[in-house]
Amino acid sequence: MAAIFTILRRLRRQVSLITASAAAVAWQIATVADMDERMMELEMRLAFIDDTVNGLSSADTEISRRLDRLERAVRDLRSDLMNMRAGLGSDTANEPPPPHY
Q1: Angstrom distance (rounded) from CA 2 to CA 30
Q2: CA within 13 Å, CB half, 45
């Protein structure tokens, strides 16, 4: 009988170790699956961020072009205004008074 109890105790220990090992393996599998899921989520976020950065870069380029055109237009308008003022004459003292005087 004592031998049977000894064998049963050994079997319980082995079952306990196997159960602990199975639990550890299950945890590792769950951890790997969780890590795969997290990796996929991070890859999707990275793809979205990359797309957003490319879109912003294109928008920045377009805004720079528009700003350059507007600066050129303002420079041309200033030049035209200065030419018009020079053509009209800047000395108002030599002008006759308006007709209503």
Answers
A1: 41
A2: 6
Structure token pair of residue 91: 């000395």
Where does the pLDDT of residue 43 fall: very low under 50, low under 70, confident under 90, or very high at 90 and above? very high
User: Which alpha helices (H) appear in 1-101, and where do they start and end?
Assistant: 2-88
Q: Give pLDDT tens digits for 58-82.
A: 999 999 999 999 999 999 999 999 8
CA torsion through residues 53, 58, 59, 61, sign? positive
With 0.85 as the threshold, say if the pTM is over it. no
Q: State the residue for tokens 């200033």.
A: 78
The single-letter code of the amino acid at 37 is E
What are the tokens at 81? 């205004």
